[in-house]
Amino acid sequence: MKKLLRTGSFLLFALVILSVYSCKDDDNQQGTFELNINGLEDLGADFRYEGWLIVDGAPVTSGLFDVDANGNMSTNSFTVNQEDLDKATTFVLTIEPSPDNDPAPSDVHILAGDFNGNNANLTVGHGAALGDDFTSSTGSYILATPTDGMNNNERSGVWFLDPAAGPGAALNLPALPAGWDYEGWAVIDGTPVTTGKFRDLAASDDAAPFSGPMAGPPFPGEDFLENAPSGLTFPTDLSEGTIVISVEPFPDNSPAPFTLKPLLHQVPANAADHTSFQLGNIASDTNPTGTATK
Q1: Using alpha carbons only, how large is the chain's radius of gyration in Å?
Q2: Domain residues of the chain, as ranges?
Q3: How buried is residue 150: exposed, middle or buried, by Cβ count under 10 Å (0-12/13-18/19+)?
Q4: Looking at the whole model, is its pTM more than 0.70?
Q5: Phi, psi (degrees; rounded to nearest 5) at 155
Q6: Which of 14, 34, 215, 246 has the most CB atoms in a 10 Å sphere around its CB?
């Protein structure tokens, strides 16, 4: 009788242990998460993309990846805790420093989407990304070189101002969230040259490395008069060049425009100076898009 009791007790203990380990296995069950994204660019050696599942309001990493020069992701399949996958309501893609000692997401949110069932459509306009898709953005610019006086090299500078407004701001762009800046560019003989980064549309941008000795107007822009980059000669003539407004991550380790380029215009041949030219909206062609599947 005692032997039967001991045997029964052992079997009961074994069942309890088995049940506990079975629950632990369920807790650690892994699932597969997939991303398919177009329009991302190579971030170089200092930054990587990282995905985040929003689970019970908190971010849970879904993994890191790189993108090559052709826009191909290093991987699009990730192993994630199945319970987190089941509970995830939103996916967010960020740009992170590499190496990265902070376990939390950076401020640089580039894509996001809410799950509808197992799928989420990812856009820059989602509130957890940039919050706007820039398709309603507009703007104009003039050619002028105020930093070396009137009637000197007037087609060698570009300013994002409206002379008919007093002058006034010539760009209509949404306010950016933390982690992002606007940047102006002039593409000169195939080389993109910055006009400076800015967030305020009616204030000077952050730098004037190529301008002359006189003060420029309180708007984003630049005169290309001195300190020309290698391969270029200043002053120049921006006729038949290209003017671009990009949206740049901060920090930014690239000397070229980022993939987000909402506004662009090719300067006409023999363009008149101090005349407004309208920038075209190409946001729908440059915004990355994608899907997340859990």
Answers
A1: 27
A2: 30-131, 138-286
A3: exposed
A4: yes
A5: -95, 15
A6: 246
